[in-house]
Amino acid sequence: xxKIVSLNELLRQYTQGDLPKKDFEGCxxxxxxxxxxxxxxxxxxxxxxxxxxxxxxxxxxxxxxxYQDMGASFEAYIASLVYWSARExxxxxxxxDLTEHAFWEARAEDMNPCENEPVYLEPLSAIKPVSxxxxxxxxxxxxxxxxxxDHIARIAPAIGIEKAHLQRLIDELRKRRLARDEELRGxxxxxxxxxxxxxxLKKKLEVTLEGSAQHEKIKGQLERAQTRYNTMRxxxxxxxxxxxxxxxxEVLGIPKGTxxxxxxxxxxxxxxxxxxxxxxxxxxx
Length: 285
Fold this sequence. Notes:
By secondary structure, the protein is mostly helical.
């Protein structure tokens, strides 16, 4: 096929029926790719230009059908389409790159590949029994949300209870608190998303011109996002991940007052130990 150097000539062949639409679109694709300077894409390499034209293809196909000769040539029409679409494409790519950078920056602290698994020096058989197994069991059930299978395996011998039985108690507690835990989990996910949004907006604010309308708009969005993030965190802190004393009592089949008094005794003992440690005599001991 003879090489065509004019989009206007390509249009003439297409309108006369000498060139099918798919071939016409392919010729435009090739023409733009080989004449990047003419379409002000001279700063792009060939691979980037190919990606852009693939993204532009559906829009270009619709533009061909919408073209009407109103005084401007078809080549000028396509040049205008490519120019404005390229600006949009650059903006989209910049926003995508910025969002991706902010995401990985926000995730950096959560993705430490050098962090080692906890190492327990003593074997399970070496764990000493606790002084008050009943109180300890209540405290464990109170803190069920933070217990892993490994924790359960190590704690069960210390309080003189079978691992399977302790696991059943915790599973029963989790079943009773399923709706609450789902609510907490959902709130945690929304907080995480809001945190990423704050990071992205902060990065966008850094790259926009200070004093411009866009800068002020993003600044307002960031302030609102940070306010919402702090509000959601306060709400999460007020909800807590601990089981109620009533729920612990129901799982154990004992009166709530027994759980109340046992946990209060643990709290009181802890306060006394801390007070003794903080006193001058305890500090010198």
